[in-house]
Design a protein that fits this description.
The complex is a heterodimer. Chain A is α+β, with helices and mostly antiparallel strands. In chain A, 25% of the residues lie in helices and 16% in strands. Chain A has a domain at 176-246: [2Fe-2S]-binding domain (DNA polymerase, domain 1), CATH 1.10.150.120. Chain A has a five-stranded mixed sheet with strand order 7-6-10-8-9, with helices on both faces. In chain A, strands 4-3-5 form a three-stranded antiparallel sheet, with no helix packed on it. Chain A is elongated and about 55 Å long. Chain B folds into three domains: 11-34 and 446-584, 2-Layer Sandwich (Aldehyde Oxidoreductase, domain 4), CATH 3.30.365.10; 37-124 and 200-276, Aldehyde oxidase/xanthine dehydrogenase, a/b hammerhead (Aldehyde Oxidoreductase, domain 3); 353-444 and 594-742, Aldehyde oxidase/xanthine dehydrogenase, molybdopterin binding domain (Aldehyde Oxidoreductase, domain 4). The chains are: A alpha+beta, B alpha+beta.
């Protein structure tokens, strides 16, 4: 967020104050799935203690080899690839090399994908399952356009490695045809070019799941993970208010 | 058949036009069913990624692609702007220029291939300081960009032996000497990028000698010639399709050189190609808007009416070295005496392209700020100063319209309640509030458009038009016009747009599309209906002019029992469908559309003087637009334009590293755009006295995207009592201005 590297002026207290004024990260918005190790935090927008979102480089550092797969909750990504040999793994971890088949439960259906360690969930959805609702707007996740639900939590498909969601439940905008959110978007014309819309629709669904009775203030503070270039925020706000009132 | 007189239905008879109609493709867009260029996956396609030049100014000496070619899954390495072995080096003038493309089985493999390219560069000195006129002059990076002078006839003419320029200078100085108030200021606005969320690019393939392109384009009907020229084929061998486009804003009118490269790669590999820019490349080369910086001196009489304007502005449009067009200075206002000149600065950046309301937002932001500084200097109400200066504007016939709009805007933002003199408002802790105004204008003439309308004997209705839906709701407008005219429900008409194989319709640029398709679809529908009326008249044995189409039937006016259902009427057509192709040419005199709108915007802001953060409390947009077509989508256009104005006023800017010239904030995490929580309360008011309806359709896309920047900048000045000269008004700039003012 506050953004311009060369212009980040002001004292530390200024910066703290800024973080309360500008894009607050909604606490409903899970950039880092809680069960993922901090070792893959470099793939995500990291929530700094003072409230700034720090962006790190995304999948550039991930190769087609070397995904350390945990037997339990721990999952790690190796970023250093020095040989074609399998890297040594700590006890309880397994190294995945090259292309493997995984199954992901997408919108209720079990689908099989061939993935390399570097393959993102977004790649799989768009190129293997032809689910192109999640959009490749900014691969570092700063636009929110690739938002999908994994196990009910909003994540960016562009910064989620496919191997990490093997066996998990993924919900995309394509399954929300009967949901109230897209209908409210249409009613309030909360879309223009529409390229950001699917990501916004999923983000709103996740937000309302957590805050079904959100106030306008909470909505304004809670949906800042997505960018719309056409400027449909006023309409989105109206759509979400109408959804809350409808509850 | 009697000759058809084109007209719009009267207000009380309209079922759809002017009403709130939900966009027909809204559900597809919301649930991912809408397929954009980026979403189209063709069987056996290759994905292309290109290496963007990492230097703003250099020569590319050589490319070693051998390691890239060995990556499994890399199919082709293709030189775009790079020398073949033995060729002369290629000079590059912009960070991000695409040098070499890699076609591969997946995006990841293409990216891996790129990482293996070895490119030799010779670095050259770069220049990117577009705000620094002296530095540009010292580096010989300037170009004259026009100017002129106009003095009141009462001042006479120079004698034959006078030096004209000296005489003019003397007169200008005399005018300043006679002025009660003289304001000198400097203002600026940085370059911003289009930043379309769907990046520029295509998914295409060759079908024999025929090129079939899915292109993210604002110009479906007329990009074929660009491909044809570059590929040495003819335009009839190119089909362009675009059902949905993820943003354009003026930047997507051509195939672009990477589009040509995609076609070449498809030819070489014999496979379909998907080639879209990365986010970083979209910001660097996908389109940008020129910057503008200005030195202004103005002189006003005792009432605050500006009598003389003298300005010199500069800025950059990239390496072609232009700036904001001088023709609109000062913006909307036109004192009796003015002198203005412009200097273009050649910087090592991608050349600019059209941006929503080309030149107007910058001209507004760097000249109407000077008018507000006049109010500050006089310790007068800014609203009064804007109203008084309406006696000297470039379209005098509009002055009453502006006055009315300013009054409406002032009511909506509660101006009298919140107004205080510049810098004299109440302070709550470190926070001060302020009000500001901007006013704007636009043409919005309908573009050329043709429409093929077919009525089937079974009652089916389908239309074909080579237009596109930028997000304004074009598809919905087409359906509304047809359904309204034919007396059918909107679902009963099948609208087809987005293909160059359909009848020609002009590019979507300059607020021309809703006017264009309204012209072509209304004409086609009225003509078809006249033919149908002739058949029905014969059948019912009544004169055709007594018939009307409404509620799914064609009936005799006043005798609803004497009617045929739409289906029955269409069965009279015979075996072949009834077909009409309407033709509307831009500029044709028409009762259906016209041009020239006015508007004003007002902003109320809060500024934290400790942190420099500016927050929008409320913005008001008052806009006329002739006949409102779809009230719902028209409102969305204005909301969106207000938010874009907030973006350019507070957040977005291209930042070039001063030493290397690199565009250093070309990702969305640091190219800041407003988010939902940054927009405050937005109020849209359609200014539509009955006289507006009679003007027919006028384009709406550009005008509300113009004056918000000036309004916000003026509101910040009103809040703090200090002019923050350059947009965007980042926290640092606000703090710097406050510190400078303190001394």
């Amino acid at each position: 967020m506050n953004c311009h590297a060369q212009e980040r002026g002001g004292s530390h207290s200024d910066a703290r104050k800024l973080s309360t004024c500008l894009n607050l990260i909604p606490d409903s918005y899970t950039f880092i799935p809680a069960d993922w190790g901090s070792c893959c935090a470099h793939l995500f927008h990291r929530l700094e203690p003072d409230g700034f979102i720090m962006s790190q480089q995304s999948s550039q550092g991930v190769s087609r080899r070397g995904f350390l797969k945990g037997s339990g909750a721990a999952v790690a990504v190796s970023t250093v690839v020095s040989s074609t040999e399998a890297e040594a793994a700590a006890p309880g971890l397994q190294v995945v090399n090259g292309e493997t088949s995984i199954t992901i439960k997408v919108n209720g259906k079990s689908l099989t994908a061939k993935v390399e360690p570097r393959t993102t969930l977004l790649d799989v959805l768009r190129y293997q399952f032809d689910l192109t609702g999640a959009k490749p707007v900014s691969l570092d996740g700063s636009s929110g356009a690739s938002t999908v639900l994994v196990g009910g939590k909003a994540v960016m498909a562009s910064t989620t490695l496919a191997l990490a969601v093997a066996g998990k439940e993924v919900t995309t905008c394509e399954s929300l045809g009967g949901d109230a959110v897209p209908s409210a978007f249409v009613e309030h014309d909360a879309q223009q070019c529409g390229f950001c819309t699917p990501g916004f629709v999923v983000a709103v669904r996740a937000f309302l799941n957590k805050y079904p009775n959100a106030t306008e203030e909470q909505i304004r503070a809670g949906l800042n993970g997505n960018i719309c270039r056409c400027g449909t925020y006023a309409n989105i706000l109206q759509a979400v208010i109408s959804l809350v009132k409808g509850n | 058949m009697a000759e058809v007189t084109y007209s719009w239905p009267e207000n009380h008879k309209s079922r759809l036009i002017g009403k709130r109609v939900s966009r027909l493709d809204g559900m597809e867009k919301s649930t991912g069913a809408a397929k954009y260029t980026y979403d189209i996956n063709l069987p056996k396609q290759l994905v292309v990624r290109a290496l963007g030049c990492p230097h703003a100014h250099c020569r590319v000496i050589s490319v070693d692609a051998s390691a890239a070619e060995e990556v499994p899954g890399v199919v082709l390495v293709h030189l775009i702007k790079a020398p073949k072995p033995g060729d002369d080096p290629v000079e590059i003038r912009a960070d991000g220029t695409l040098l070499v493309a890699v076609a591969a089985e997946t995006e990841a493999i293409a990216a891996e291939g790129l990482s293996k390219l070895k490119v030799k560069y010779e670095l050259l000195e770069s220049f990117v300081a577009d705000h620094d006129l002296q530095a540009a002059e010292a580096k010989k990076r300037t170009k004259k960009a026009g100017g002129g002078i106009e003095l009141d006839e009462a001042l006479g003419e120079p004698d034959d032996d006078d030096d004209e320029e000296e005489w003019e200078e003397q007169k200008v100085q005399e005018l300043f000497a006679q002025s009660t108030y003289v304001v000198e200021g400097n203002y600026g606005i940085d370059t911003i990028t289009h930043c379309c969320l769907e990046p520029h690019g295509s998914t295409l393939h060759w079908d024999g000698d025929r090129l079939k392109v899915n292109l993210s384009t604002q110009n479906v009907s007329r990009t074929d010639d660009g491909y044809a020229d570059a590929l040495k084929i003819s335009a009839d061998e190119v089909d362009v399709h675009c059902e949905y486009i993820g943003g354009g804003f003026g930047s997507k009118f051509k195939p672009d050189y990477w589009g040509i490269a995609a076609a070449e790669i498809a030819k070489k590999t014999g496979r379909p190609i998907k080639f879209l820019l990365t986010r970083n490349q979209e910001l660097k080369i996908g389109g940008n808007r020129p910057s503008g910086f200005i030195d202004v001196k103005l002189g006003a009489d005792e009432n605050g009416v500006v009598q003389v304007w003298d300005s010199h502005h500069w800025g950059t449009s990239g390496f072609n070295g232009s700036t904001v067009s001088v023709g609109n200075f000062p913006y909307v206002f036109r004192p009796k005496n003015w002198r203005r000149r412009a200097t273009g600065i050649i910087t090592d950046n991608e050349p600019s392209v059209a941006w929503r309301a080309p030149n107007h937002p910058q001209a507004c932001a760097i000249t109407q700020t000077a008018y507000d500084d006049l109010a500050a200097k006089m310790q007068a109400d800014s609203l009064d100063i804007f109203l008084r200066n309406l006696e000297n504007i470039d379209s005098p016939e509009k002055s009453l319209v502006y006055a009315e709009q300013l009054r409406i805007g002032a009511d909506l933002i509660d101006w009298r309640k919140h107004w205080h003199l510049h810098g004299k408002g109440k302070r709550r802790g470190s926070v001060v509030e302020g009000l500001g105004i901007g006013i704007h204008k636009w043409g919005g003439t309908a573009n050329s458009s043709n429409c093929l309308l077919k009525i089937h004997p079974d009652g089916g209705v389908e239309s074909y038009c080579g237009t596109q839906d930028l997000g304004t709701g074009t598809r919905t407008i087409c359906a509304m016009v047809l359904a309204e005219t034919l007396g059918l429900p909107i679902e009963a008409v099948k609208v087809n747009i987005g293909s160059s194989t359909y009848p020609f319709s002009g590019a979507s640029g300059g607020s021309t599309t809703v006017g264009a398709v309204s012209e072509s679809h209304r004409r086609a529908a009225q003509e078809v209906l006249a033919q149908l009326f002739d058949l029905v008249a014969k059948k019912l044995e009544v004169p055709a002019e007594k018939l009307e189409a409404s509620s799914g039937s064609i009936s005799v006016v006043g005798y609803s029992d004497k009617s045929l259902s739409w289906k029955q009427a269409c069965s009279l057509i015979g075996i072949q469908p009834l077909e009409v192709t309407s033709i509307y040419k831009r500029g044709d005199d028409s009762p259906l559309s016209s041009s020239n709108v006015a508007g004003c915007q007002m902003a109320r802001v809060a500024v934290d003087t400790d942190t420099g953060v500016v927050k929008i409390i409320k913005m008001v947009a008052v806009q006329d637009m002739g006949l409102v077509m779809n009230r719902k989508t028209a409102e969305s256009q204005i909301y969106g334009a207000l938010i874009m104005s907030i973006a350019a006023a507070l957040f977005e800017q291209r930042i070039n590293d001063p030493k290397t010239g690199a565009f250093i904030n070309s990702e969305l995490d640091n190219y800041r755009l407003p988010r939902l929580g940054d927009t405050g309360e937005l109020v849209v008011h359609f200014h539509e006295p009955e006289s507006e309806r009679a003007r027919g359709v006028i384009g709406l896309g550009e005008p509300p995207a113009i004056s918000g920047g000036a309004a916000i900048a003026n509101a910040v000045c009103n809040a703090t009592g200090v002019r923050v000269p350059t947009l965007p008004l980042t926290p640092k700039r606000v703090l710097d201005a406050l510190r400078t003012a303190k001394g």
